[in-house]
Amino acid sequence: MSAAERSREKLRARRAALRGRLKRQRPEKRGRRWGCLLLLLLLILLLLLRDCSCAGVPDAPVGPESMGAPSPAEPVEPEPPVAPITGRLGPIDRPDFRPEPPDPLAWIDAFRMSVAARSPRLAQCFVGANSPGTLKWTTSVEPVAGLVSDHSLEPMLMGAELTSKERGCVIAVLSDPPYSLPVEEGRATPSRVGLVLEF
How many domains does the chain have? Predict the structure, then answer.
């Protein structure tokens, strides 16, 4: 037997084996199809039965009353016309509003003295400056801890702007160490304070 004949025999044997497998599988597929069809029919019947359970409720009579329209026997009264708004309101006297001035900060004098005591350290920030100047320092002071934050440094009297090095030095001297302020009972929340510094 030649090699070509052997390969043909193998092909025939494989085809026969595949045909046998297909014949075995076909009845199973048919059974599955029938099962799916029966399940689908059962679902349709259940849906129909659910819709039919509402059929026992009697229908409401159809008429003009049921549709929201008034019956022809009842006359419809027209709504009274709304009079247009005319005229103007006169002036109303109100009492004068005068806000009460805030209580003076009990620790402000101690804060000013503490800032003045840092003058020698502040002078070190301006070594080599061409001319003396004046700054307005505005900051938020938290009196209990003695911390300052949210700094604003503005040159006054046509003074020159601070360099970034000078600005960093001034803020560091004014912020560290924290201030020791006499805090009494009452207002102890952070307050915005402005001071004039000369160098």
Answer: 2
DSSP state of 99: P
Q: Is residue 92 part of a domain?
A: no
Residue indicated by tokens 């952070």? 190
Q: What is the pLDDT of residues 157-176, one digit of tens each?
A: 766 777 888 888 888 888 88
Sign of torsion, CA 49 51 55 58?
A: positive
| 191 in the same domain as 116 | yes
Residue 188 near residue 127, CB atoms below 8 Å: no
State pTM to two decimals.
0.46
Domain membership of residue 69 (yes or no) is: no
Alpha-carbon dihedral angle through residues 7, 13, 16, 21, given to the nearest 10 degrees: -110
Which positions ≥6 away from 188 have C-beta within 8 Å? 143, 144
What residues make up the domain containing 8? 3-50
